């Protein structure tokens, strides 16, 4: 894809890319991504020609809402420490204060099948290896200090405390923080804080498991398959130390394995974790439903807010946004306990009403 002019040829991150690249015409981007503005380009070699490897330069987008806790202050610093510990993480290089990450040429795992499609054995085996490598990285084994404002304060092994912090963050920073703007939309869809309280009650009895490093966002778009078939893992900004079962719950929720493959993926995770972190999968069968319920409720809140934002920017996005929100409601329905999930048409009407209310509010503030 060619450079997009709308995001701004004068943006700070694009100017950095222009300064470092082997030629402005070789810059690709901004690349697809919610949280960051990203460009890929080759660096000049000793003769000034374009090198064979491309690199990524990226920075957080202005005004982006974060719906997950971020534990490490620097994703780049974390990735540098993972060298030699995690097999397939693209390396980081520095040019002064500018950090670049190697751009993996290939295809996302989503290119081999969207959520709900089976994952090929050759890729599943590499995901197992990733879980094994993550389980071997325990708190205190990295010379990095998590950001104290966002890191978990649960003691190593206190999985109930770790879950309670996640649930509290979602209620306070995702649901309640957005009630002034989206309260009427939540109400129209029959969504309140009740499901989080139900999940919190169940999570109080989680089994103790030793903590390890979690990626926190293992879905198909964050796995890149290179031409040799090697699976690379990108986007480590949600990494944290915590309950290893939470990484499995997030992974299963986002990947949406077929019904016959999901149990096998969970068993393979159990074997991988227990192989290097004895007790890391203790009580997993009893505890997994509670963490999956949390992920479904968390996704519901975030999907509603993101859908409302998308529709506010572009009315033509209404149909797709309504479909996505309706799917999120159905997936969380076991926790929501609605008499009947809203139809896609009703969801679309609620989003359209929210858009009109937002536009009226903007017009009033201008007056």
Describe the structure.
This protein is α+β, with helices and mostly antiparallel strands and 367 residues long. It contains twelve helices and nine strands. The strands form three sheets. Strands 1-2-4-3 form a four-stranded antiparallel sheet, sandwiched between helices. Strand 1 (36-44) and strand 2 (50-60) form a beta hairpin. Mean pLDDT is 91; it is low at 1-9.
- Number of discrete helical segments: 12
Record field, number of beta strands = 9
Termini gap = 41 Å
Strand arrangement, major sheet:
1-2-4-3
Please state the average pLDDT score. 91
Provide key terms for this protein.
globular, 4-stranded antiparallel sheet, disordered N terminus, about 375 residues, 3-stranded antiparallel sheet, alpha+beta, single chain, 9 strands, 12 helices
Topology summary:
Elements: H1 12-20, E1 36-44, E2 50-60, H2 75-82, E3 92-95, E4 98-102, E5 107-108, H3 121-135, H4 159-175, H5 179-188, H6 194-203, E6 212-214, E7 223-225, E8 231-233, E9 240-242, H7 244-255, H8 262-276, H9 284-313, H10 318-331, H11 333-336, H12 344-366
Antiparallel strand pairs: 1-2, 2-4, 3-4, 5-7, 6-9, 7-8
Quick overview:
With 367 residues, the protein is of the alpha+beta class. It is built from twelve helices and nine strands.
């Amino acid at each position: 894809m060619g450079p997009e002019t709308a995001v701004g040829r004068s943006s700070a991150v694009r100017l950095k890319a222009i300064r470092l690249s082997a030629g402005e015409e070789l810059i690709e981007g901004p690349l697809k991504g919610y949280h960051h503005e990203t460009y890929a380009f080759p660096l000049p070699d000793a003769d000034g020609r374009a090198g064979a490897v491309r690199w990524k330069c990226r920075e957080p987008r202005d005004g982006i809402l974060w719906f997950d806790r971020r534990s490490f202050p620097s994703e780049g610093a974390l990735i540098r420490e993972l060298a030699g510990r995690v097999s397939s993480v693209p390396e980081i290089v520095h040019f002064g204060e500018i950090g670049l990450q190697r751009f993996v040429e290939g295809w996302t795992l989503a290119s081999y099948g969207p959520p709900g499609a089976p994952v090929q054995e050759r890729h599943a085996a590499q995901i197992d290896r990733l879980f094994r490598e993550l389980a071997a990285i325990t708190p205190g084994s990295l010379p990095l200090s998590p950001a104290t404002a966002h890191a978990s304060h649960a003691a190593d092994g206190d999985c109930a405390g770790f879950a309670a912090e996640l649930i509290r963050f979602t209620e306070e920073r995702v649901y309640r923080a957005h009630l002034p703007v989206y309260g009427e939309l939540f109400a129209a869809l029959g969504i309140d804080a009740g499901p989080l309280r139900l999940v919190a009650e169940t999570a109080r009895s989680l089994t103790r498991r030793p903590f390890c490093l979690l990626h926190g966002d293992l879905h198909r778009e964050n796995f890149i398959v290179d031409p040799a078939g090697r699976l690379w893992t990108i986007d480590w900004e949600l990494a944290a130390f915590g309950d290893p079962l939470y990484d499995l719950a997030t992974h299963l929720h986002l990947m949406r394995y077929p019904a016959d493959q999901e149990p096998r993926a969970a068993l393979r995770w159990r074997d991988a974790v227990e192989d290097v972190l004895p007790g890391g999968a203790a009580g997993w069968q009893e505890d997994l439903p509670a963490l999956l319920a949390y992920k479904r409720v968390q996704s519901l809140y975030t999907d509603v807010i993101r859908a409302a934002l998308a529709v506010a920017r572009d009315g033509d996005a209404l149909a797709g946004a309504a479909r996505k929100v309706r799917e999120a409601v159905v997936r969380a329905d076991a926790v929501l306990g609605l008499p009947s999930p809203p139809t896609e048409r009703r969801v679309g009407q609620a989003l359209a009403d929210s858009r009109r209310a937002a536009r009226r509010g903007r017009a009033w503030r201008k007056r």
